[in-house]
Every structure is written in structure tokens, then in C-alpha cells.
Amino acid sequence: MNLYEFEAKEILAQYGVPVPDGRVVTSAGDAEAAALELPGHKFAVKAQIMAGGRGLAGGVELAATPSMAGDIAKRLLGRRLVTAQTGAEGEAVERVYVETAVESAKDFFLAVLVDQALAQVVVLGSTAGGVDFEERVKREPGIVERLPVGTDGAIDDTQCDAFLTTLGISGAAAVSARRIIAALIKVFLKTDATLIEVNPLTLTRDGQFCAVDAKMSIDNNALFRHPEFAGLASGTGGDEIEMQAQKDEINLVRLDGNIGVVVNGAGLALATQDMITDAGGHAANFMDIRTTATSLQVARGIGILLADQKVKAILVHIHGGGMTPCDTIAEALALALAWSDRKVPVVTRLAGYNADYARQLLVDRSVPHERCDDIAEAVRTVIARAA
Amino acid sequence: MSILANGTAKLIVQGMTGRSGTFYTDQAMNYGTNVVGGVRPGKGGKQHIGRPIFNTVAEAMAETGANASMVMVPAHNAAAAMIEAIEAEMPLIVCVTERIPVLDMVRVKDALKGSNSELVGGNSQGVLTPGACKIGVMSTADATPGPIGIASRSASLTSEVVANLTQAGLGQSTTVGIGGDPVHGIGFVRCLELFMADEDTQGVVLIGEIGGDEEEQAAAYLKKTRPRKPVISLVVGRHAPAQRRMGHAGTLSVFGSGNAESKNAALKSAGAHVVENVVDVAQAMAAALVPA
């Protein structure tokens, strides 16, 4: 689960990480009122969306007066912001965050995450903090320093000194940087985060560090032990349809094409998408049905595709395994088509566990579909039907 | 003719008394796996589906001589179950449980340091040595004994490749699901080491996907060791939009993790036979096995 900036900052502040004073608002009037209350003479007005790349897409603006803050909020609220990380549809701005602008002497990048290969928590730091950090890292991976963290959250003093020295942080600043690093690690472990990213971590002209922007992701698999996140706005944010599918044990990502794709397993889903694209087709979605999904849940997932006007044909590609037999999906397909007023051509390719049984079930229930036993043929057929 | 598990495996199941534990233990026994008992704290001394239940892994090992454990414990207790098995020095631990918190896996990997246990998973479909031993939840419908080893990040894709290989007359020595989670037990490199040392494995299929760096590590290993057995590699997700996260948690990438193009380039330069689509795997293996 990704948190909004204002949620992440609230949590970081609780653990003693310095953040600018700010308020989250949903109207231009409230934005102006918030700026009037805040200390300082200059304000940042920031669209609250999940996607990164916001700064370069016009989602963050500086206001010299409270009334300007209101004007900026008015422009941002209700708009769909398209960034490098969103699809062409962009992401709706429902909230803006108004905060006291911080005068920067120097910007850093600081993050805590799990290094997958080493199976270890690491702190990453760089002197190249700022909006174009991600692009720069791609070109020069060497600009990022690493500091390993023990499973209990401990860091080695000598390694930490070296880490800060390489970042050019010394003296009083080093003392507060250490405190911030310790606090970030503590938040990371306590909240089961998968990522905390502070970019920029700004060193102000008077020598104080301040987390000017923050991104935080919580491990979905650990939410069972974090009831405190249940009430967050993030739980309702993002793509509503994709969230709905999640509740039905389906990982759904909506794409821009016209072929609805129903697949069990992430790997097979990616493989199917590769073949569709290679053959000149365009998938309308990525779907990975989890092994625990029931036919009723899968039927609702297929229903999402049937209701999508973009979807002109559906490919059902299942390799039945020990956990998801083909007949579960066949059952779901029959249900979904019975529920939906909108029908589109359906091409099926069923293999593996209970494939024969599932094929017979589709025939017995008179489910309209074209059966292909070969993947390449199924892909060609569905592309032709969607055209 | 296998790696990790064969007909000599004596399996216990941690979490055997649960619904899926019962179902898959029964399936494993039907396949011929020698299941010698189960572990469920508090139920020691009882019997379940004809096998004795023990309170702890250590007790089960002492009583039965078990040398492998399948972990089917719910996610919130899965790490503790794996750590218990590691501390009891269980030689092979296969964790099928999905959705284990990643920080729990970091602790499990820490417990593995200095241990001789081989951990497979979590979120793995398991280890299958066709005709001899099934430790996991994979489909066995199309699997047949033979000379091809498979290491994979995806269960359904493995079933597809197994079916295609069998159809092409190429049976499998062992199939290993390394698991779809970002932090997991043995990876492609360890599987390659084992397959290269296994005299009955003549070729290896690696089934990778975008995200993480398993494929890059495998490429580095192949480059260094230049094994004589052919390696066919498939990396799926060539056309997945770069910035969107899809499927396995392992595809969540923040830094330096490769796309399909860079993974394929690395594998190719290391001498692997790179195929683009799943339907091409069996044919490529058949061609690679023909002596030049």
C-alpha cells in the first residue's frame, strides 16, 4: 500500500523526522486559510497523488501569498495529473497539501528499503536529491551510497561515518543526519514498510535538515498486524476498479488496449501479454488470478472486463495447476457472461489440471466461446475478433 | 536423477492439519512421496490422515528421521515455522505459503546464515522430481521423468513448459519453484549449481520475469563457469509497461533491477539460449541437446 505524502509525513514526524509545517485540504478556500495559519512567507502547494514524477508534471507550485496558494489549489484540485509514472489517463487530484516552503542550501536523497538480492535492509543516500534524481540514477548508478542495516535495526558506527562523509555531511549536520537515519530505520521496521524515500532531504540555510517530500509504501502482506493503517485515505485511493479486483483475489492492472485478458498466475499473464503484443495486439489489462480466488470472485473480475467499453474481445488463458483447476475459471466465465448485458467474443485456451472437464462444462452450459488448444492460435484468434 | 529431493526424501509437513495442509499432503502421498509425519504445536501424539503429528520439528526429526519439510503454515506464522526448521537443521525446507511479510523473510534469511539447510520459497509451488517425489502444490498432470531441470519464478508458466517439454519427448529431472516473492530461499544460481552437478540432468530451463536480479545473477554465474549443459532461458514481461507494477511482489523494483531486454542481453552474452516466448522453450531445448 502506497501512502500519500501527507500521510507519510505525519508518520515520519511522529518518529521525530523534521518535516515542514503543512495542512492537507480539499478546497481552494481551505488552501488559502491553511497558508494564513502556517509559519513563513512562502508556501508549496502539492497535488496529493500516488504516482511519482509529480514535480516535473506541474503538480507542485510555490505560492508567495496565501491567496496565490488558493489559486494554485483551485487549478490542481479535480484535475487529472499525467506524470511519467501514470498512464495516459493520469491520476485525479482530490487533495492538495499546503506547507511552508523551505529555503534549500543543498538537497539530498535518502531512502530505506529491502535489498532483495542481499535479503537485507539498506539505507541509500545521494547528494543528487531533487526532481530529476530517478533519471540521473539510471545514467549514473554510482551516485548512490549504501549503508547496511541489521535485522534488529542496528547500523555500524564506522560504516555510518563513512556513509555521511561520502555524502559530504559533517559536524553538527552529521549529528542530526544520524538521528534522522535512525528514525527512518525505526519507522521502516515498526510499520513493515517496503520503502521510505525522502527526496529531497533538504539542508536549510540555517543548517537544519528537513524532509521536504516523502514517499512511503507499506507491505500489503503485513497489513494484518497494522490495524493503524486501516483508516488511511490511501486505502481508498488509487484506481477504484483495481482495488475492487484486489478484494476478489485478483491482481488487475488496466492498460490501454482492446483485448481483455484472463490468466492464472503472474508469469503466465506476462507471457501471454508478450505474445499478444508480438502478434500486433493490445491488451486491455494485466490479470493474475490468485490461487485462493473462488469462481465467484473470478466471475466478478471477468465482469470488470465485460463492462469496459474498450474491451472488444476476451482471451481466457488458463494453465490449471494444483491450486487453480480449469473448471473454476470455466465456471466463472459462465457466470460472468450470464450476469452481463454486454457480450464480446470470448476465446479460450485451457490446459493442465481439469482442462477436459472445463471444456465440457463450457459446452454443457452453452457458453459462447471459441476454443483454441494452441496458445499462438488463441492469441491470433482473439486479435482478429477484437479488430 | 534429480536435485534437492528424490525417492529417498522423508517428508514432514509443518501445518499438515490445516485445510490446505491436509489436501496437499494427501496429494503428495498419492503421488508417492514418503510422508512420515506432520508438525502442529499442541497436537503432538495425535494422528492425521494416517500419519503421526509432533509438537516440534526437532521431535519429528528425532522420531521419524525426516530429511525434508514442507511448510504450509499461514503467512503470519510461516517465518517462525521456517526458522524452527532451520534451527532443527532440517536439510531441505520448502515453503509454499504465500503473502509472507518481506521483513519476516529478511529474518528467515538471517537465520539461514551459517546453516546447511536448503530453503526453497516461500510463495513457491515447490519441488517436483517426476515419478519420485512431490513436495509442493504444483500440477503433476503433464510431468514425466527425464533429463531436463527447471528453475522458475512462476508456477503456471512452469506447468506450461513442463507440458510442452513432455510433449516434445523431454522429461524432467526436477522442477524447482524459487518463489515469486522479492526475498526468498535458493535462487537461480543455486539451482544451476545443483543441476550442473547432477549427472542425470542434461539441460536446464530458467523461467524468469521482469524485476529483481535473479536473471542477472544467473548470467554472471554462467559467464564465470561456462557449463557444458545447455541453458534455455525465458524472461517474460517484455511488453509490460515499465512504470507499472504487475503480479509478483518481486517485480517491484526501485533500483537497478533489469527489464526483460537487459536480462536477456546478459543471459545471451553468458551463453544461454534465450527464447522470447513460452511456446519456443521445448523446441529450443530439443535443438540445443542435439550434439553439434
Detailed description of the structure:
The complex is a heterodimer of chains A (about 375) and B (about 290). Chain A is an alpha+beta fold. Chain A has three domains: about 1-20 and about 105-240, D-amino Acid Aminotransferase, Chain A, domain 1 (2-Layer Sandwich); about 20-100, ATP-grasp fold, A domain (Dna Ligase, domain 1, 2-Layer Sandwich); about 240-385, Succinyl-CoA synthetase domains (Rossmann fold, 3-Layer(aba) Sandwich), CATH 3.40.50. Helix content of chain A is about 35%, strand content about 25%. Chain A has twelve helices and 19 strands. In chain A, the strands form five sheets. In chain A, strands 1, 8, 9, 10, 11, 12 and 13 form a seven-stranded antiparallel sheet that branches. In chain A, strands 2-7-3-4 form a four-stranded antiparallel sheet, covered by helices on one side. In chain A, helix 2 packs antiparallel against helix 3. The mean pLDDT of chain A is about 90. Chain B has about 290 residues and is an alpha/beta fold. Chain B folds into two domains: about 1-125, 3-Layer(aba) Sandwich (Rossmann fold), CATH 3.40.50.720; about 140-290, Succinyl-CoA synthetase domains (Rossmann fold, 3-Layer(aba) Sandwich). Chain B has helices spanning about 20-30, 55-65, 75-85, 100-110, 155-165, 190-195, 215-225, 260-270, 280-290; strands at about 10-15, 35-40, 45-50, 50-55, 70, 90-95, 120, 125-130, 135, 145-150, 170-175, 205-210, 230-235, 275. In chain B, the strands form two sheets. Chain B has a seven-stranded mixed sheet, with helices on both faces. In chain B, helix 3 runs parallel beside helix 4 and helix 7 packs parallel to helix 8 (about 260-270). The model of chain B is unreliable at about 245-255 (pLDDT under 50).
